[in-house]
Write a structure and sequence with these properties.
Strand order of the largest sheet: 1-8-3-5-6
Number of helices: 3
CATH topology: Jelly Rolls
Number of domains: 1
Number of strands: 8
Shape: elongated
Largest sheet: 5 strands, antiparallel
Radius of gyration: 16 Å
Mean pLDDT: 97
Helix content: 25-40%
CATH architecture: Sandwich
Distance between the termini: 5 Å
Length: 138
């Protein structure tokens, strides 16, 4: 069985941003040489997320609106976490959107449904953060 590990680094210019990372994940899969197995992709920071959904701009705006309704950024004073930082909302948004995805690898490709793509969700940006890709299989 093969095992492959790669880190992707991001520094988004905005506090919140959704980034389609499917091309980078597919490149890592090609580099791994794994044809049959599993791919894990996870955010390595507690204010960022990795999730699967459609790459449709209206949906992305819906996510932003919905997450702001659930956990508005301001006022910062509403979060007990915000004593030394102002990112209590980002921790909650990450919890809702999830930490990682696992995708089957079949025939050397991500075994996706027709519109599925992998996204990095940043909820407290403007600093360097990483995503881990771990691939196992044959």
């Amino acid at each position: 069985m093969k095992s492959y590990r790669k880190e992707l680094w991001f520094e988004t210019p905005a506090r919140r941003q959704l980034v389609n990372i499917t091309p980078q994940v597919e490149a890592a899969l090609r580099e791994s040489g794994v044809a049959e197995g599993l791919l894990l992709c996870n955010a390595m920071h507690i204010t960022a997320s990795v999730f699967i959904n459609d790459d449709e701009p209206g949906l992305h705006r819906d996510f932003e609106d919905w997450l702001e309704e659930l956990a508005p950024e301001k006022p910062h004073s509403r979060y007990r976490h915000n004593t030394a930082e102002d990112n209590g909302d980002a921790h909650l948004k990450r919890t809702v959107m999830g930490r990682e995805v696992v995708v089957a690898v079949t025939g050397g490709r991500l075994d996706f449904g027709p519109w599925e793509r992998i996204f990095y969700g940043e909820f407290d940006g403007r600093r360097r953060k990483r995503v881990l890709i771990k691939i196992i299989g044959e």
